[in-house]
Amino acid sequence: NGDMIDVVLPEPGPDELLVRHDAVGICFSDIKVIRTGENHPRIYRDISRDPVVLGHEVSLTVVKAGENLRDAYHVGQRFIVQADISVNGVGYAYGYEIQGGFSEYNLIDQRVLNGDDGNYLIPVQESTGFAEAALNEPWACVEAAYTPVYRTTWQEGGTLLVQGDGAGVSLGAAAAWRPARMVLVVADEAFAASMRAWANATGVAIVDDAADLTFDDVVILSADPALIEAAFGRLARGGVFAVATAEPIPRRVRLDIGRIHYDNLAVIGTTDPEISAAYAPIRTQLQAGGRTWILGAAGPMGHMHFQRALEMAGRPGRIVATNLHKARMGPTEEKFSGAAAAAGIELHCFSQDEFDSDEAMAAELKKVTNGGFDDIVVMAPSVQVIEDAMPLLIEGGVMNVFAGLPRGTPAAFDYNLITARGNRFVGTSGSSIDDLRHMLDLTERHVLSTNSAVAAVASLEGVPDGLHSVAEGRF
Hints:
Layout: E1 17-25, H1 28-36, E2 57-65, E3 78-81, E4 86-87, E5 90-91, E6 105-108, H2 110-113, E7 121-123, H3 130-134, H4 136-144, E8 159-164, E9 181-186, H5 189-202, E10 205-206, E11 215-221, H6 225-232, E12 235-244, E13 253-256, H7 257-262, E14 266-270, E15 291-295, H8 300-311, E16 318-323, H9 326-342, E17 346-351, H10 358-369, E18 373-378, H11 383-389, E19 393-401, E20 410-413, H12 416-419, E21 424-426, H13 433-444, H14 463-472
Parallel strand pairs: 8-9, 8-11, 9-10, 11-12, 12-14, 15-16, 15-18, 16-17, 18-19, 19-21
Antiparallel strand pairs: 1-2, 1-6, 2-3, 3-7, 4-5, 13-20
Helix pairs in contact: 4-8, 4-13, 8-9
């Protein structure tokens, strides 16, 4: 009902810290948890029986240290939290599995202090503001969207599937790559024989195709849409999916775009007869001097991506920012137009409701960019919006699907954009502890201002209204 809940202030155990939450940001992911419950990708329990205190964008201060931690921590010490906590490969995200920041105090235990990535608390300078520190968490997610690392070889010691025709195809540089095992399902006997000879010479085991097997790398040597769709579902987390074919793919293929975002999948392709050509490095930074479209620019995360494009080195030469409604796009244009002019960036701001049709809007976007975009950064969690934007990528263009659509959400990809035009689709979820350290460094060196993302400030009693405000798009 939105009322505060009083609980007994806990005493820290010998290996725990009692901390005070100084500031907490409200994230749209908090809204997603409220709406989806245990169906949220970071929730692993029945929260109707075991509820969670939300809030993962936090800065905090040590109030009391357990007896075994008093040499390492002192009262008044300040930190931010890398929210994506993992222990023995199990997720315990702050504000999802571990109780979060919409509370005055909390206990920090060994899951946070001694997880898979070490200590998830990151020290903050005394001069850094409470909100300025807390907002490094969402800002780190934005910065991490431009720094993912995708493999340019098959997974060393991994599992590989090669399936399709194979006529006229060769390994190229992939002959030097070393998976541990391979499933080979190809029609061309000459290519199959060459792959078996390569496997025998390099110690790669050839195994039977098991229906429950997942793959670090999937290489499809076919333009068959049904085969591409079926094989994509067999990709492991962090996997690379490559289609190598000179033949046009006759229809769009439906791939799980939620997995591209949440499971760090790479979707690549080539028309080159050498398979290794598909594994060229994927550009993840905005094209310097290029044409960038920020799609869904008027929301909080849209503002952050917008600000980053204006302020970071290697900035684009032209930015198009769009949103559904002029009522939201107007204030966004007002906020950023001066900075764009100062940086020498050509800026165009549009709202969808200015146009009679989607086709009219697409025509205008092509006109102001002389044909399309080097980069499209998508904040709108809409499959239709993403599908409609894909053709506006120019050759070699990259779409960054920042909006988190759930796993199991299919989107129709024209895979010819990937194989023949070199387009790439990237997506990230959350940030690593190194991403957060990097972002805090940018903040404390005054390279990026996290405070620019502050739209309103409230007490803890204002959290319900703040959540409604985010859900309804008031800010």
